[in-house]
Amino acid sequence: MKTEGTAEGIERFSSAGKGRGLRALTHYKVGDLLFTCPAYTYVLTVSERGNHCEFCFARKEGLSKCGKCKQAFYCNVDCQRGDWPMHKLECSSMCIFKENWDPSETVRLTARIIAKQKTQMEKTASEKLLTVIEFESHLEKLDNEKRELIQSDIAALHHFYAKHLEYPDNAALVVLFAQVNCNGFTIEDEELSHLGSAVFPDVALMNHSCCPNVIVTYKGTLAEVRAVQEINAGDEVFTSYIDLLYPTDDRNDRLKDSYFFNCDCKECATKGKDKAKMETRKMNEPPKPETIRDMVKYARNVIEEFRRAKHYKTPSDLLEICELSLDKMGDAFEDTNVYMLHMMYQAMGVCLYMQDWEGALRYGEKIIKPYSKHYPPYSLNVASMWLKLGRLYIGLEKKSLGVKALKKAIAIMEVAHGKDHHYIAEIKKELEDH
């Protein structure tokens, strides 16, 4: 195995069968911080404008808006000045297009990478071990549908970014969009709500495992990587690229579709959790294998249908999709089955949006125990569910249950986010207030 570059406590190396990877040079205990990585560049998602600062992602009230476009919000003049080199790419365009300004987040992020590469000649603090130009694109593995989506993004880039951007040629843009699709990160808050997209080159160096030994969390636009298992000197550092809720075949389909590989980790080799994740109804005659196969196919189709329907259906229509699919799947699947849990989670999200707090709580109470079983320890999915439940209990005047749930969230988050994270301080403040 060849070493290719080092930073404090970690090194880049050639990982057998995986290409580049990251390896520990020292021992890390659960909860230890391995390294941090500032974003190379990033964008705040449009729906969070006004709630978070465009530059530092701080969540606060009374943000000041950009005087020109009136769409970007900042903590103060320093944040506004700091963001101008990137905001200027969009500011005048938003003024021209108004409500018709709607490039995708991928297009917005890619525009910022192009702009940064024109002005940034040296390696940045986020590229100690891997540079953006080294990103894998998997260009030769893209099917026609993915290539067409990239061409659509390129057209949007030209349409919305004509004034402040010098474009590379089409072939270079195809490579860049493919690189962003494989190496971009989504920044989420403590309840896993989407805040934005970013590029963290050194974080992108880590390979995937379905039993990861580190977790990536965010402090504003800084990525922090912490151990969630004991890591010894010489061990490879693994994160997870995908949601680990699903059974092995489903996880590998997702990895193949987005990242073009199959996972060979211990969990994928043994399929140790698949039986519990695919729990079927206890009946006199258990469902036949073909019935289960058909139901999984139905579940995966309805998940995709729901993802698309979010963009054009009303909340009550979305809730109906969830309830109908839960009824149908419930003929064969137990409530602990991961496909049932997926639709319950979607239904809970719709209830929260509709401010149906009792409905959201009913779904959350069904979800939390199987989540704790199916996910690895120190899972952000489990922490965020405890957090949502705690806040719902307190809002519904079930204080003792709320306090217990918030404490369970904190116990996970102190490992995943670090004890000094402002999210934990905010939750402890909620506990004090109640």
Integer-rounded radius of gyration? 22 Å
SS content category: alpha+beta
For the record, the count of structural domains works out to: 2
CATH topology of the largest domain: Serine Threonine Protein Phosphatase 5, Tetratricopeptide repeat
- Beta strand count: 13
Q: What is the CATH architecture term of the largest domain? A: Alpha Horseshoe
- Form type: globular
- The total of helices stands at 15
| Widest β-sheet, arrangement of strands | 1-2-3
List low-confidence stretches.
none
- Distance linking N and C termini: 55 Å
CATH class of the largest domain: Mainly Alpha
SSE sequence, one letter per element: EEEEEEEHHHHEEHEEEEHHHHHHHHHH
Per DSSP, what share of the residues sits in E-state strands of 2 or more residues? 5-15%
Enzyme class: transferase
GO molecular function: histone H3K4 trimethyltransferase activity; zinc ion binding
InterPro entries: H3K4_H4K5_MeTrfase, SET_dom, SET_dom_sf, SMYD2_SET, TPR-like_helical_dom_sf, Znf_MYND
Domain MYND-type: 53-91
